[in-house]
Amino acid sequence: MSSAVVVRAGVYHDSVTLMRVSRALSDLPGMDVALVAMATELNLAMARDLGFDPPPAGPADLLVALRGQDVAAAERELDRLLSALSSARGSSGSSSYGLAGAEGPPPRTTRSAAARAGEDAGVALISVPGEHVLPEAVDAVEAGLDVMIFSDGVPVWQEVLLKRLAAEHGVLVMGPDCGTAVIAGVGLGFANVLRPGPVGVVAASGTGAQQVTSLLDLAGVGVRHVLGVGGRDLSREVGGLSAVRALRLLDEDPATELIVLVSKPPDPEVARAVQEVVESLRTPVVPALTGRDDLTDAAERVLRALGTPVPAWPSWPAPARRPPKPGAVRGLYAGGTLCAEAAAIAASGPGAASASGAAPGSWSGSESGSEAGAGTGSGEASGRGSGEFVDFGDDAYTRGRAHPLIDPALRLDALARVGPGEVALLDVVLGHGADPDPAASLAPAVARCPAAAVVVALVGTEGDPQGLHRQAAAFREAGASVFVSNAQAARYARDLR
Amino acid sequence: MTLLSGPPHVVTAGVDLLREALDAQAVPTTPVDWRPPLPGTAGALARVLADPRRRAANERAVHRLTSSRPLLVGVRRASELLDLPQPMFLHAGPPLDWERASGPMRGALIGAMLLEGYALAEEDARARLESGAVRLEPCHHHRTVGPMAGVVSPSMWMFEVRDDVHEGVAYCSLNEGLGRVLRYGAYGPEVLDRLGWMDRVLGPVLSAAVELAGPIDLRALAAQALQMGDELHNRNRAATSLLLRELAPYVVNAAPGHAAEVLRFVGGNDHFFLNAAMAAAKVSADAARDVPGSSLVVAMARNGTDFGVQVSGLGDRWFTGPAGVPDGLYLGAYGPADANPDIGDSTITETAGLGGFAMAAAPAIVRFVGGEVADAVAATRSMYEITLAEHPAYQIPALGFRGTPVGIDVTLVARTGLLPVVNTGIAGRVAGTGQVGAGLVSPPVEAFTSALLALAESALDPFDQ
């Protein structure tokens, strides 16, 4: 056993890339510890906790801490992985300038990249850490690009500023904290592979939109565009600036016949303003208000509006391993909206189809208390005496680590700690950007999970790179019940005995 | 093309996995090689980027910088052009006193004392300078720039350069040649003799010749020289030849008796044009000053102790850091231990899109500054990342006649961590030594971060109506 800790000054890679590199090195035979990360205070402290003595370094330097039987081999592998990454990055840059064969250094700002892409560029996809988003997003807007901001942790004043600037420049800002978008069939961020079709979606909730569109896809209805707007867009501060713009864009799109608006119940004043816009559109709008009506209901309303029969949503229930304590559901979620929906259902009485009394599909009904139990905000919430729901995708859990759709570590750990009398309920979201094979890590954890039963809400389509049925089979084999409808999964978990 | 009309080409910044997901869908991407900004600048960057004046202010400032048209209109004595109450000298870089002055700066000041007759001997000069009896002010505070020590005293002859677009004017002294010269801190008899000849012969003859010739378009000369292998800071051979070609007939007409020695002197000094290029750059950069909200750099200058920058939106304030020691090639037996920290106002050329920023135009000098041709091309290319514009007149043939990168934006320096590339001569550390080499130097990061923090403090709140 030997160990090495070195700092490579000025070498930068994003945290997700480094997590994957660390994981690849950890998987080498005889490797005990492999930490490859930017030398932030957090990561330096982690290295010290692991017994390393890192030299002085800053967040712009790469920290490599290795312990195992063949550290030299691990370093060689690290070099190989990093150089493969650099050449992949370099080769996709394009430039028309220069001495023959000289490509020039890659662009260092969105401004520069937009200038190099020239007329071709249409959209900027920004996923740098939240505190660094503004300059890149301003660059994109000023270059006339529509922008998707995947990052969370962007201050709300910056969001308002960006969306006002976007209005001046005639572009759309999707996000911040926009996890999914589909533009003319191209998925940005976490996005399902959807068949093309007449539906357009405006979404203030990423996983909410993924649930609705995946169900539509399963029912044979296609979706051409999903325009995310970010979870705060319909708040009083932001005022629905992007939602209104996205609604108008879809209304002008000749291929869009029906618009679905997925959101938490908006601020009442914003709701009135949006309602006015909705009424002025030629295209009908079906609202899907999470927390007020469930997403599966919303998808079914869309199908009825299009005159398409509502199918029986695929499900593969499995019996409980032993009788659970009634209603003791432990929700371990990656998607915030899915978490809130499941928590609300688990908290409601058996047989209640909807978590609140408001009429489904209405925009501006009275604010009900149905949002209690949602896992947004603090990231952790208790249902009414019915177990505990955690949204591992919340900012509180993603600071300094990748989203749980990419990095399963926290949920693997949580699965191992579910009580023997509880029902574990978790979502697995497929699509581009997400873990290429979530069952590979989660299914064995499901099989080992000490819970009385495990229920999986599997959000995805057969066209997704992971394959819906392949993933379903793996979780069933591990002993879980699998549902494509999160609402049905939550009801099943709640009512298991 | 509107957002929804077809699959987009995507500019990506951040998590590489998300770009890979686009690759998997065969969507074309242009990835940003993004890194965190300079430490401690994230908050200030947000405030400056949010300043509602920034974009228009920078457009206006850089347009004024690139649209100026510097013309050489005269050669006159400093005492005629500048307010220099005796005893007072101008010097290169940000403000400085004798106590903090480096060897070559002290040498040049002593030389100026002797030249002007303010002191009869070195010891006397040194004592008077030490006592604070002589006022020292930056050239930049007087519409003037000076190479290396940049010392300007009343009797010196100056290029007078006017910008007929923005009506500005700027001055720079005449170049003494290489080797042991005042601007490198040498003040021996041969230095003073040469300055005496320049005072008696070169100045008056050039003055008369320029008057006969009429205004000479320095921007046009610089543009041609860039296409002949100059970058107008460390290589001025082509530009000097072009200027000589313009002036020669008028020199002969103005002073047939002195024409041969004047033309021989100018022709024998490859850097003769540098001082004219500096005045041209100064008048252009000054046109971009004082645009409220602009983060454009309007001056970079070194006094041998500090490296300072000034920013359009921040008036006459200097933001400084310690001047670095250049990395380059040394003359004869000199080495890095003999080198003084970076000195001179000649970084005004980089400020205006020449010098290090135009390195790709001057493959011949890369050996002088140590490196390969590819390094010169890479240096220029990297400067596009921190500049606001491409110069409409200054073009680089090897880059497909692309305009040189021009208009350093403090926010882009902080975001990319890329510092301006500066070509420079290297002065000897000990007063009186002269030039010991030439090379490249990196400005201190804190000059730019402190300018950024000051911009953030003066930024307007975007939500204040």
Automatic annotation (TrEMBL), chain A:
Residues annotated as domain ATP-citrate synthase/succinyl-CoA ligase C-terminal: 332-493
Any Pfam family hit: CoA_binding
Region feature Disordered, mapped onto this chain: 87-114, 350-387
Record's compositionally biased regions (Low complexity): 350-371
Compositionally biased region (Gly residues): 372-386
Positions of transmembrane segments: none
Gene3D superfamilies: NAD(P)-binding Rossmann-like Domain (3.40.50.720), Succinyl-CoA synthetase domains (3.40.50.261)
InterPro entries assigned to the protein according to its UniProt record, in alphabetical order: CoA-bd (IPR003781), NAD(P)-bd_dom_sf (IPR036291), SUCC_ACL_C (IPR005811), Succinyl-CoA_synth-like (IPR016102)
Domain CoA-binding: 197-280
Source taxon at top rank: Bacteria
Protein name: FdrA protein
Species whose genome carries this gene: Nonomuraea roseoviolacea subsp. carminata
TrEMBL record, chain B:
Name of protein: DUF1116 domain-containing protein
Ranges that cross the membrane: none
Pfam assignment, any one: AllG
